[in-house]
């Protein structure tokens, strides 16, 4: 270990060191994890273990014995179901390893369900409950998290010339930061990120095959790579073939072969390297699976019944954005609108103070906590797409994006819907807030209040937020980012601010006698009907009466009144109102023009 300074300092006798990338990080004692070794993971008594489980000792370390249904360091998680293998002999007969990462026996092992080989967790590697995948293995590079397998004694993994039918590796991944993802020994697959690019390499005895991608997806996705001497190297993303290559380079392995698999960690002559990521369902076959096989693996792997989030198991149609809710079986499909500002062509109708539109340099994306790609397209593109970043300077620790001032034709005010995608990542603190400055009169001063704020920890994906509210006659909206240090990146994309007048009166377009003798009324709406859900309130009265009677509140655009007896030649009057409910507040439009109708 070299001399280094960790901030915050390593607790509980943890040791600070500098890794091969030049980053300072903590090496924690056996019973502690976290970026600063502050999180205890050992039980002190049975009372530390949940679910009436007990505290035991394994190889000198205290752990919670969770039984069959619970898992986690303190038995605080349920066990996710295993992803079932399809009844396809071409898949099942060649599967040689499968780590489901659903349980963590003794608080330290992940066991292979095929051959009972195990990974041992080191540093800040843990079992984690993912909204997308259920139970997964989570590694934190700043806590020196790593998974290292025992020696597998697998002839195919030891030496590629024993893999007569090739080799396949598949796993679910969300890559957060770092470089190394997985290495299946000196020979075999090496999956990693370098200079912002995504690499899949297969190392044979004396040759290697490499696939290079422009960047790596930000969300959870299924990585599958196949290799055979005849077919070369193929890479699949979410079950679909992305690229293949039969081109290889001369490349020999120095020293002896080995068949130890490492995840999120590697050691070279320059030192140790770590990555932050989550991984699930790591499978290895001693055969190059076909495209059809890979597609089946993906289809089986996204079933909701195996704790997959519904954005995976029931994806939105192409062109929509999926928002995973809570619980994980719920999601929403967000349709882009014409009012969305993707920042591709400028600031739209917004103005900035200390913020700027930018594209991504992939290397900077990895190093500087940036998103790997914009939200609008959600993929690596050439040229890269744009988004808005909030900036800080040496003198100013905040920046903002502001709307224009809106003035309503109605003294009662507006309805507004603000929606946007945001990204926050880094080790320094900060906030992203949305405030509204409004006044009930153009002659009064605007009063400002915060309507939304987040200081959530880093989440390496684009997050969605929608705000709906009633606003006064005059208002403007401001989005402000504040920074407590330089190691924080805050960005925004696909921003939409829709403003409408809910008090505009609807129009009764027709009244006529229905076939059943009732009165059929038809109407149309303006105002906020294109933006907000609404219902229509249908009223009637006799022309000699001053009191209106509400006959129905309906979501339809027409209604037949059957509830009264209409005498011939009588004159009745009809009107409708548009009814909105926003944040529990009922807002009703002005009355439509009264429609007089003589009963035939």
TrEMBL record:
It holds the Pfam family Laminin_G_3. GO terms for cellular component: membrane. Transmembrane segments: none annotated. The keyword Oxidoreductase does not apply. Coiled coil: none annotated. It comes from the Eukaryota. Gene3D superfamilies: 2.60.120.200, Laminin. The keyword Glycoprotein does not apply. Keywords: Disulfide bond, EGF-like domain. InterPro entries: ConA-like_dom_sf, EGF, MAM_dom, NOTCH_homolog. Disulfide bonds join 6-16, 28-37. This is Protocadherin Fat 4-like. It comes from Paramuricea clavata. The lineage of its organism: Eukaryota, Metazoa, Cnidaria, Anthozoa, Octocorallia.
């Amino acid at each position: 270990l070299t001399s280094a300074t960790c901030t915050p300092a390593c607790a509980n006798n943890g040791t600070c060191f500098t890794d091969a990338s030049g980053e300072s990080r903590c090496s924690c004692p056996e019973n502690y994890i976290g970026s600063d070794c502050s999180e205890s993971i050992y039980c002190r008594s049975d009372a530390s273990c949940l679910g009436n489980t007990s505290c035991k000792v394994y190889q000198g370390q205290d752990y919670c014995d969770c039984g069959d249904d619970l898992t986690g360091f303190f038995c605080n998680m349920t066990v996710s179901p295993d992803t079932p293998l399809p009844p396809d002999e071409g898949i099942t007969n060649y599967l040689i390893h499968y780590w489901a990462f659903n349980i963590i026996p003794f608080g330290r092992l992940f066991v292979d369900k095929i051959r009972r080989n195990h990974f041992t967790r080191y540093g800040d590697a843990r079992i984690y409950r993912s909204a997308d995948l259920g139970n997964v293995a989570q590694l934190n590079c700043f806590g020196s998290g790593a998974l290292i397998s025992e020696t597998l004694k697998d002839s195919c993994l030891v030496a590629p010339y024993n893999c007569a039918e090739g080799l396949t590796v598949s796993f679910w991944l969300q890559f957060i930061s770092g470089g190394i993802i997985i290495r299946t020994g000196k020979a075999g697959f090496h999956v990693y990120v370098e200079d912002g690019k995504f690499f899949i390499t297969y190392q044979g005895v004396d040759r290697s095959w490499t696939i290079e991608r422009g960047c790596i997806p930000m969300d959870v996705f299924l990585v599958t790579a196949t290799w055979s001497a005849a077919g070369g190297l193929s890479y699949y993303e979410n079950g679909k073939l992305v690229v293949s290559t039969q081109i290889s380079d001369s490349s020999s392995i120095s020293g002896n072969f080995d068949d130890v698999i490492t995840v999120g960690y590697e050691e070279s002559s320059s030192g140790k390297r770590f990555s932050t990521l989550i991984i699930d369902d790591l499978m290895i076959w001693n055969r190059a699976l076909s495209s059809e096989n890979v597609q089946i693996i993906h289809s089986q792997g996204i079933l909701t019944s195996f704790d997959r989030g519904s954005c995976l198991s029931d994806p939105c149609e192409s062109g929509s954005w999926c928002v995973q809710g809570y619980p994980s079986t719920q999601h929403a499909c967000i349709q882009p609108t014409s009012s969305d500002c993707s920042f591709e062509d400028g600031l739209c109708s917004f103005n900035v103070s200390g913020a700027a539109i930018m594209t991504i340099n992939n290397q900077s994306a990895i190093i500087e906590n940036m998103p790997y790609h914009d939200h609008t397209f959600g993929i690596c593109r050439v040229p890269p797409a744009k988004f808005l970043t909030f900036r800080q300077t040496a003198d100013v620790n905040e920046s903002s994006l502001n709307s224009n001032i809106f003035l309503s034709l109605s003294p009662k005010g507006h309805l507004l819907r603000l929606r946007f995608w945001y990204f926050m990542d880094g080790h320094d603190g900060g906030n992203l807030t949305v405030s509204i400055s409004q006044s009930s009169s153009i002659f009064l001063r605007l009063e400002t209040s915060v309507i939304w704020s987040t200081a959530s920890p880093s989440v390496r994906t684009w997050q969605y937020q929608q705000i709906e509210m009633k606003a006064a006659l005059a208002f403007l909206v401001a989005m402000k980012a504040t920074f407590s240090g330089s190691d924080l990146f805050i960005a925004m994309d696909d921003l939409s601010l829709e403003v409408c007048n809910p008090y505009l009166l609807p129009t009764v377009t027709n009244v006529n006698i229905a076939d059943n003798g009732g009165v059929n009324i038809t109407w149309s709406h303006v105002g906020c009907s294109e933006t907000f859900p609404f219902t229509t309130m249908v009223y009637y009265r006799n022309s000699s009466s001053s009191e209106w009677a509400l006959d129905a509140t309906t979501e339809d655009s027409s209604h037949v009144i059957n509830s009264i007896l209409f005498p011939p030649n009588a004159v009745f009057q009809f009107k409708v109102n548009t009814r909105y409910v926003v944040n529990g507040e009922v807002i009703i439009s002005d009355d439509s023009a009264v429609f007089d109708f003589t009963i035939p």
